[in-house]
Amino acid sequence: MSSSPLAALLALAASLLETGAEPYRVEEAVERAGKGFGCGDVQVFVTPPGLFVGIEGPGGHETGVRRVRSRSTDLGRLSSLNSIARAAERGDLTPQQCLQAIAGMQDAPAPYGLGTELLAGAVASAAYAWFIGATHLEASLAALGGAFTILVRRQTGGRFAERFFRLAASGFVVGLLGVAGHVLWRQSAGNIVAGGLVVLVPGLALTGVLRDLLAGDFLSAAAGGLEVLTVAGALAAGAALAVGAGLALGWN
Amino acid sequence: MLLSALAGAMGAFAFAVLIRVPRRDLFFAALGGLLSGFVYAAAGALGLHTIAQVLLAAVAAGALSEVLARVRRAPATVYLMPGLIPLVPGLLAYHAMYALLRGDYVSGAAIAVETIYWAAAIGVGIALVLTVSRSFQSSPPSAGKPRARREP
User: Fold this and answer.
1) How many CB atoms lie within 10 A of CB A109?
2) What pTM was computed for the model?
């Protein structure tokens, strides 16, 4: 065997975490896959920023650590990884094949192009705006904001501080659209801002936090909860800057 | 009510693209938004409290996602996340921020608490569904159970 079960389990766990799986789900999947590889005892400890896997493998006890620095939501990949994990659990994959499957999946191109994503951002924002009772003009401005936030969202990487300011910048631009809508056309800035920012709302992280809590994983829940608060704070800070400037310049 | 459901479906479909739900699941992801939008509006038409509207809609979206996950053999998240998009308390959060900006701290704090209630209602709804759904699972989750150590 050219690659150890530990390497495969670490790769599986890290990829699952990176594509948006909740930590407790990663733990379950990796424990089961480890049994499928024939490891005696599998200990998995997953937190949002990193994970540990320890196994009783062919060469005695082995432990590995993986740091996960960026997490994003990619449900297509998450689905594929789940299938890989299940195949490993059934014993259909050797560790080598498992590593190859994960690597092959990571080389696959993104399912949707830039144009599609921008359009989706615009449509999601407009639809949400209509849902909360916005006028067509408000929904159009929200759509503009939604497309812009997707452009900004595509810039990934960097430290968290950079992500924070990217989020705040999105909030600011959408806030400006809201102010413009209010000043120029007497529209509700709230509908425009809420619609424009809806795609950035940390909804997945929030439901993940709740699932972590239910699973009794308080460490991950606390980390995830802080992330939700920080992201929401960044969006609000950006929007508040724009709306506050509008107020200071005496809108109404 | 129908318009709400349609807007919900549209939003869910578009959001599903953004979180890279595979093409074959996009239509089913939109169903979640359709259902939650409809339930939210219908509960409102029945005169229920906003928080109850959100709770019921979240339960509906959660239940649908668990059913779809079993039928289509994909993680429930694929159908759950898009379905929750219409329920995001974005407008409330904006009003809270706006009140705080104007120096109206009392309203700001009150609306912020309402936003938290709202988010909690979504969470409780999903948690309810998740707990019920887990009790029907064929193999119990291995997490939390002490594992037997193999002696060397």
Assistant:
1) 6
2) 0.83
* Residue B7: CB atoms within 10 Å: 25
The verdict on A32 touching B (C-beta cutoff 8 Å) is yes
- Distance CA(A228)–CA(A234), nearest Å, equals 10
A152, A138 in Cβ contact below 8 A?
no
CA–CA gap between residue A32 and residue A50 (Å, rounded): 19
Residues of A in contact with B81 (CB under 8 A): 73, 75, 203-204, 207
**Among B44, B45, B82, residue whose Cα is nearest residue B61:** B82
Q: Nearest Cα to B33, choosing from B61, B70, B55, B75?
A: B61
Q: How far is A192 from chain B (nearest CA, A)?
A: 9
Reported ipTM: the value is: 0.83
Query: CB-based contact (8 Å) between A70 and chain B?
Result: no
Query: d(Cα A84, Cα A92) in Å, to the nearest integer?
Result: 9
Q: Is A113 touching B (CB cutoff 8 A)?
A: no
pLDDT tens, residue by residue, A179-224:
988 888 888 888 899 888 988 877 667 777 877 887 788 888 898 8
Chain B interface includes A138 (CB < 8 A): no
Candidates B77, B85, B134, B142, partner chain A, best to mutate (most A CBs within 10 A) = B77
* Domain ranges (residues) in chain B: 2-134
In the structure encoding, which two tokens stand for residue A138, read together?
Answer: 């408000």
All residues at 6 or more sequence positions from A197 whose CB lies less than 8 Å from its CB, including other chains:
A145, A149, A170, A171, A174, A235, A239, B90
Q: CA-CA distance, A200 to A141, in Å (whole number)?
A: 16
- Which of A20, A79, A194 faces B22 most closely, judged by CB atoms? A79
Structure tokens at B84: 């929750």
